[in-house]
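lol ok so funny story. i was supposed to be doing the assay writeup but got distracted and ended up predicting the structure for this chain instead. priorities right. anyway since i did it might as well share w the group, maybe its usefull for someone
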Amino acid sequence: MATPRFLDGAAVVATLSIAEAAEALGRGIANRAADTLDPSPRTAVDLAPATGRELLVMPCHGPEGVGVKLVTIDSANPELRGLPRIQGTYVLFTPDGLTPELVIEGAPLTRLRTAAVSALATRLLARPDSRRLVIFGAGVQGAAHAAAVRAVRPIEEVVVVGASPESARAAALVAELRADGLIARLGEPRDVAQADIVCTCTTASEPLFAADELPAGAHVNAVGSYRPSMCELPVELLGAALLVVESEHAARAEAGEIVRAIDAGVLPAAGFAAELAAVAAGAVGRRDPSQRTVFKSVGLSVEDLIVARALADRLVESAAIDGRELA
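and the output, tada:
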């Protein structure tokens, strides 16, 4: 048996763009049955209670093959060891034979997958003429979402709202965007009033802005909260907008905004949102230019599987092309 190839972060970036990953996700989830979106439960193993050390095991299977992401979380890593708080690895197995095919560095795959899902949602839901982007959070996903939205909409101006007005990461992201030729500046939560698209990429536990601050026709990608205790959006917005999630089951269990909205009676306990697969299939979509749209993502294992398969297929295609060129 051949040793599976390993892809580090640089190889992931070089192999598949955000736009290409978004296209693969659109094909992969359109018309996919709801019970195959998250076919295997995520397992969390508490390695040391009350110390922030955890192992997450996220398996998935489908026509793309079988995959599993192994993620460790150690809150002490950055300060004590100079290591990332979250580390991980993804293993992809072939559909036939279940042979180990590809090993992928976990963080770059998650970065690409998360941004690509938002790019897909933006392409499907945001107004085609959207030009002004507001991003909350300037970490890995904040930067990735700046690229993701720009891949599918003609963004000209970006406002970055950092954790504080003195955020060095926010200033660095603004400088990077300016170097790419965009109008970019540091901003405040109230800047959502001029936004066409808003991306929230934070670990906030309370809403980042008020519902009535978001203008008509704006689109929101909310990707930061993935636990019931976390929340980036006001519940009033969820009740008034076209709300789209990856899976109702996963959103109800993990998204703090959804949990709060259901508890407050703003959303029903079931049938509270359209699922992204239905939007990708063309069954649901924006009604008119003035409608507000919200995509609330918690991340699904099937998204990792689809993007991992796209990476593997692209490697095969590249090898075939290289072979012809050398012949």
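The first strand starts at residue 5 and ends at 7. The chain has two domains: 5-109+302-326, 125-300.
back to the writeup now i swear
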